[in-house]
Amino acid sequence: MKKNKNIVLLLSAIILALYSFSSITQDKWIVPKEYQSKKNPTNAKDKANLAVGKSLFSKQCQSCHGKEGYGDGPKAAEQKGDLGDFSSEATQSQTDGALFYKMTEGRNDMPSFKKKMPDDEDRWLIVNYLRTLKE
């Protein structure tokens, strides 16, 4: 009887550890240090750049993230994770390099855009556009 109790306790501990690892550790999106400090090479104030960034966002991001970046696009319900709110302090406080990295590499439901948009400048222009969504 004691042996069965120990097995149940051990299995419970393993299940709890696996659950904790998957729900806590994997939710945090770790951005490599070199991207945290990476500078945006484009002019964020240039109106033509912002127009291109908005156009690219509309084509590539809006279906999931929504027109205003609230994470409420037509395909949002199909996604498993939190799509974020680009107007929020949580997003706006991230560095340009961090946003660029996340868009470039992707994770879980967020696809990598390094093949869809192989020109780094296009992704930087979207980062510029994301800054305009701040509330």
Measured between the Cα atoms of the first and last residue, the distance is 61 Å
> What's the helix count?
7
Global outline: elongated
- Largest sheet properties: none
Radius of gyration: 19 Å
- Helix percent reads 40-55%
Low-confidence blocks of residues: 20-26
Relative strand content = under 5%
Strand count: 0
Write the topology of this structure.
Elements: H1 2-25, H2 33-36, H3 47-60, H4 62-65, H5 89-92, H6 96-105, H7 120-131
Helix pairs in contact: 3-7, 6-7
How would you characterize the overall build of this protein?
- This protein has 135 residues and is mostly helical.
- Helices cover 53% and strands 0% of the residues.
- The protein contains seven helices and no strands.
- It has helices at residues 2-25, 33-36, 47-60, 62-65, 89-92, 96-105, 120-131.
- Helix 3 (47-60) packs across helix 7.
- The relative contact order is 0.16.
Based on the model shown, name its key terms:
135 residues, mainly alpha
Quick overview:
The chain has 135 residues and is mainly alpha-helical. The protein is 53% helix and 0% strand.
